[in-house]
Amino acid sequence: MTIDYHAILPVLILSGTIVIVLVTDLFLSPRHRSASMWVAFAGVLATLVAVLSLIGKGDRPGSFGGSYQVDAFTIVFQTFFMSAAAVVLLISYRYFREGGFYQGEYYFLLLTSFLGCLLMPASRDLLMLFLSLELVSAPGFLMAAFRKSDVKGNEGGLKFFLIGVLSTAVMLYGMSLIYGLTGHLQLAAVSAGLQQLSGAKETLANAAILFVVVGFAFKISAVPFQFWAPDTYEGSPVPVAAFLGVASSAAGFAGLLQLMFVAFVHEYAFWVPMFVALSLVTMTLGNLVALQQRQVVRLLAYSGIAQTGYILLPFALVSADPSINHSAFQAAVTYILIYGIMNLGAFAVTTAISSRHPLLQIQDFAGLAKRAPLLAMAMTVFMVSLAGVPPTGGFWAKLLIFQAGIQRGGVGVLLAVAMVINSVISVGYYFLIPRAMIFEDAEDQTPFRSPILVTAVVAVAMVALLVIFIVPNAIYRLGEVTSLGSGG
Amino acid sequence: MTWQNSAITITTLLPIVGALGVLLVPRGDDRLVKGIGIAITGVCLALAIAIAATYDYSATCATPPCLQFVLNVQWIPVIGARYHVGIDGISMPLYVLTFLLGFLCAVYTGRYVPEPGRIKAFVALTLLLITGMAGTFVAFDLILFFVFWELVLVPMYFLIGVWGSANRQYASIKFFLYTLLGSVFMLLGFLALYFSGPVDALGKHTFDLTALTAFGAGGGYTHLFQLVVFGAIALGFAVKVPMWPFHTWLPDAHTEAPTIGSVLLAGVMLKMGTYGFVRIALPVLPQGAVAYAPWIGGLAAIAIVYAALACLAQKDLKRLIAFSSVGHMGFVMLGIATLTTIGIQAAIFGMVAHGVITGMLFFCVGSIYDRYHTRQIADIGGGMAEIMPKLSGIFAFVAIASLGLPGLAGFWGEVMALLGAFSPNTSTVAGLNVGLFRAFMIAGGIGTILTAGYFLWMLQRVNMGLAPERWRDHGLRDILTVEWVSWVPLLVLILVLGLIPSIVLNSTEQGVNLIVKIFGG
Predict the structure, then answer these.
(1) What's the gap in Å between the CA of A338 and the closest CA on chain B?
(2) Which of A383, A403, A430, A476 is best to mutate for the B interface (most B CBs within 10 A)?
(3) Of A103, A309, B223, B428, which sits most exposed with the smallest number of CB within 10 A?
(4) B408: closest CA among B443, B471, B452?
(5) CB of A423 less than 8 A from some CB of B
(6) Mean pLDDT per 10-residue run, chain B (521 residues)?
(7) A336/chain B closest Cα distance in angstroms
(8) Which of B77, B161, B180 shows the shortest C-beta gap to A427?
(9) What are the helix and strand counts (H, E) for chain A?
(10) Nearest CA of chain A to the CA of B437: how many Å?
């Protein structure tokens, strides 16, 4: 077996960093434990450089018998995940240093989760997909319960753990059936093998697909498998909620994209109706419940559920026409990338606010436009962008999904109509925060100084969304190149 | 880079540059902020006038739109959207009007900054708004058009929500949700036009309005497709106009908005909707337009009468003016629905006239409120002519222009629309019922009488009579210099457009003829 060391260099670097973080923590005095963040940060940056060094070197199918492959899809997502890791680290710094948490352990767990994220887009067989997904989730259970003395933290962590284990079991059962039926683990071979099946075996294969989809539906918090998310997000430290909302869910989608657009693509007639229902129910329910929320992290959690519904929409467009599948794939990838930026930004602002207002009610944002103009302006941009309204990048993300829907015709048009109505509904809650920040006055008028690292992250995310609005082509290109040979 | 291909881009995007500049001004330097606002909008107005002056009005084309000052470059190749801007005779008056009102509002802001101040944000948002509105009139790629179209939402939301009067939060979100709901369906309609539209040699679709117009005018879209998509697109435009029964956001938004917000809303933003009908819905989907024309005409007739009756019932001066907009835009839509040259000419003239007159009316109401600190007609209690003769004189002049007195700007749009409704385009369009449109005309005629009624009654209650004791020694100041400066251009235009309507009509004639020709005329 040959191993392409350059291709797996990012994984090696990040694994090394994880070990170093864990060990250095032992030798740091309690006062200096926060230095772990900088070690982790340096490792993430080195990993990012290693990922970027793979650009333009062509596809690298070589490692571990094709289980780990590097192509445009891998590079785009690995870059995304490492950027997200850098952001989560930066917004964690003050939060964990001042919150009295175990810092070395946290950074170790966080990086381990991100290692799973890093593996996910490169995984091209069922086993690797499963391992990556578990690597993302397992440390997540611990991180979600990191606020040990908080009842809500314990409740959220426990729920996340139980649901996570259950979904894993269901998914693994489905995967084992597929292996049994086709005799293959590699996605391309599974795809070919599934086409050979007929009769009872085909029915069984469909059942297996159902199990796998249900497993992933838990991970990405699609309705009706979403109920853990708001409690878990609310109970988690805010930076962990950011990780769960952005990286963990994007990792789920990175896996799901490969399964549905490569391994199971020929069975679309069976699973597309399922995704139509999932997408419709998830976006609608997420939005309607979000309207009722007055706690910002819960609001972001339900908004995340609604957004999951939007990202599921392109899956429901898959058909026999490769050009439509390509558009749908591109729309999903682009949406995930842009959504990641705006959602991370929103969580970063929330992290900053949480130091002064730990309850994080919408009312706590009142008057922020006067107390911290930059934060307020950035948060406004994030909310407008999440609602998908110009002048922000979120608009282009939605446009691509609408476009794919109209191109698909038929059910695609209905889904697009449902999504535009949902987008309008979502304004009802996304605008609650800008309204509080800008239209209302705070009881506490003192200027609010947010940590410099958080401010920097927020500013970068805001500028990125505005730049994407003016020149969307760059990010559209990223979506376009990651074709994965979609359509089989 | 020549004047021809860069003028539109520079003029349209300059306000954004100004907005960024304003944000960089150090805290507390209000004079500089106001100065930047006035300077930028002034330069834009000068550029817009220069474009109008160097435009070749004698050039002819075979198909609409007949563009000059074109810049057409790649923008988002992945989805086939291009940065395609240009201008024709139809866009010209609206484009210039946008910058004229923008400049006058900036001048007005030099003296009047609504509560709660925050001048930097106020000026920056106004500048952003101006770019959005102006861009809508010169964008000839549907995606670009939509981006400019939506660009106005966020600034206007904040202008109403932060600087508005008592009920501002409700009004701002209502405005936002209504217009967003309409425009997202419009976006889906645009995407449908794209995918069912023409394909180039490489198999690529296009959002280019010139290509789509040629394709649609040539009968490229099926009848059923036209019915469905016209409905989707018209919904977006109809909310913006606003056509009855989609108008309910307007009285709230106009009433609660700060003065310059109302001026720009009424003066320009409503025209984006009617312009959309003339520019996109009619030429690209002619069969859809024919099918919907009686319905549009009917809603327009209802709007005219309904708005006039609503105005008679208003107690709030600003709300009254806001409702009058619904009626005036009804005349514009009635003109469009006739699908005749005279009707569409009337519509565009009506847009410009309404922009000038109602913009001016909102300035007046803003200043009246500034003096009395109330907008309730009963609280003002009459006698304004006695206390502030100049302000009341101007208010009367503009109100009379608005009710359509011959010789002033408001007259031509209404009378030509009624003439168009008397003989709708039945010579070349099958399916338009003359009797029906004549009924609309009669409704419109009744509307003009009611309009005269409510405006005159309003003047009677505000201007005439003896001033109540409480206002007499209140030191209410008549018109200030800054008001003269920002109003005189509009007052002159009201007179000039009334006496020489051909200024606008000559500019728009060729473009309108080309559109009507699509219907076989």
Answers:
(1) 16
(2) A403
(3) B223
(4) B452
(5) yes
(6) 90 94 86 93 96 90 86 90 93 95 93 85 94 96 95 94 90 93 94 91 88 90 94 94 91 92 94 95 93 94 95 93 93 93 94 95 92 88 86 93 91 92 81 87 94 93 85 81 91 94 91 88 54
(7) 17
(8) B180
(9) 21, 2
(10) 34
> Percent of chain A at pLDDT above 90?
72
pLDDT at A445 over 80: no
Instruction: Determine which of A439, A467, A477, A478 to mutate to test the interface with B (most B C-beta atoms within 10 Å).
Output: A439
Nearest CA in chain A to B132: A391
Query: How far is residue B367's CA from residue B388's CA, in Å, rounded to a whole number?
Result: 11
Distance CA B185, CA A421 (A): 9
Contact B195 A407 (CB under 8 A): yes
pLDDT number for residue B400: 94
C-alpha B36/C-alpha B31 separation (Å) is: 9
Residues of A in contact with B180 (CB under 8 A): 389, 423-424, 427
Neighbouring-strand partners of residue A63: A68
- Cα–Cα distances (Å) from A373 to A366, A434, B164, in that order, read 12, 12, 20
* pLDDT per residue as tens digits for the range A132-185: 999 999 999 999 999 888 888 899 999 999 999 999 999 999 999 999 999 999
In the block, tokens 């609280």 appear at B379
Q: What is the pLDDT of residue B262?
A: 94
Is the CB of B173 less than 8 angstroms away from the CB of A431? yes
Q: How close B316 gets to chain A, by Cα (Å)?
A: 24
Q: Could you tell me if A100 lies within 8 Å of chain B, comparing CB atoms?
A: no
Whole-angstrom distance, CA of residue A246 vs CA of residue A457: 15
Side chain identity, residue A183: G
Q: pLDDT confidence of A486, banded at 50, 70, 90?
A: very low
Return the residue of B nearest to A415 by Cα.
B188
Model confidence over B447-490: pLDDT tens digits? Answer: 999 999 999 999 999 988 888 888 877 777 888 888 899 999 99
* Minimal CA separation from B25 to chain A, in Å: 14
Residues of A in contact with B147 (CB under 8 A): 390-391, 395
CA distances from residue A398 to A38, A251, A260, A385, B324 in whole angstroms, order as listed: 36, 20, 21, 10, 37
Q: How far apart are CA A14 and CA A18, in angstroms?
A: 6
Q: Please check whether residue A437 is in contact with residue A379, taking contact to mean a CB–CB distance below 8 angstroms.
A: yes
Each residue of B319-332: pLDDT tens digit?
999 999 999 999 99
Q: Does A52 touch chain B (CB under 8 A)?
A: no
Taking an 8 Å cut-off on Cβ atoms, the answer to whether A390 and B154 are in contact is yes
Within an 8 Å CB–CB cutoff, is residue A472 touching chain B? yes
Q: Domain locations in chain A?
A: 266-488
Q: Number of residue pairs across A and B with CB atoms under 8 Å?
A: 82
DSSP B280: I
pLDDT score, position B432: 81
Suggest the residue from A283, A374, A379, A389 to mutate for an interface test with chain B (most B CBs closer than 10 A).
A389
Q: Which residues of B touch A480 (CB under 8 A)?
A: 78
The answer to whether the Cβ–Cβ distance between A438 and B158 falls below 8 Å is yes
What is the total residue count of chain A?
A: 488
In angstroms, what separates the C-alpha of B250 from chain A's closest C-alpha?
Answer: 18
Prediction pTM value: 0.94
Domain range for B9: 3-518
Helix (H) or strand (E) holding B68: strand B68-76
Centroid of chain to Cα B277? 12
Rounded to whole angstroms, what are the CA distances from B138 to B16, B90, B133, B237, B481? 16, 10, 9, 17, 34
Other C-beta atoms lying within 10 Å of the C-beta of residue B103: 24
Nearest to B123 by CA among B30, B57, B199: B30
Report residue A484's pLDDT band, with 50, 70 and 90 as the boundaries: low
Tally the domains of chain B. Answer: 1
